[in-house]
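User: Here's a chain of 237 residues. Predict its fold as tokens.
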Amino acid sequence: MIVLYIFLGLIAFLLLFTVLAIFIPFKMYIKGTYWGKNPTGQMDVYWIKYYIGAKLRIKDLEYIHILIWFLGIPIPFRLPLSKKKTSKKNKADIKKDKVQESTSQEMDSTAKKESKEKKSLKENILGILEAKDKTTEFWNKYKAYIKKIFVSYITFSLEFVEAKVGLKNPAQTGKTAGILYSILPLTKLKNVNIAWDYQKPNFNIATGVKMTMKLYGILCTLLQLYRIYKKDLKNET
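Assistant: Prediction complete.
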């Protein structure tokens, strides 16, 4: 009986978790910077902040630092972005052996490769054209449903933009600054702060973007699209 209660409790928890994931809006916040020739990035993904979500950070271009919140419990770990470098001597030896082994093989298979490449290129072009036609046909037929997802259930907002920009010619920097200062008030962009460097060429930028997804609406629209698509296939056959 105890095992049965544990099993039922686990099922109830999974159902509750699924309901939370579907009906509570899914939010994503992305922040990227390129300042002082040092790129960094951070992405927060969560349903309930600090309860169910994750944070990914890239600071040193060697590791992705990940922090997962599950039921309020933080679980940190990191993933390497690049493999460890082998010694130059080993690389040179491996390269030398590969060159010696592949020289004779390349001479024998050159003609075969050329014919295969021509054939595969033609097949790839035909495949791309066919896929393009199918994609265009699908878009023209069901674009109302796809637009509904991106208009009603997925929203993007620019949180902030900070930049320091300088061109080679100070006159060009001033001209560009004047154009942007004239255009920005006509847009809906807020929290945009741009500093201009008239002394030297410079480009530093930091920006943040927020995305909200309503999974319930997206799933309902996709199910509706799937039913209509299956119905159209049935009518065509």
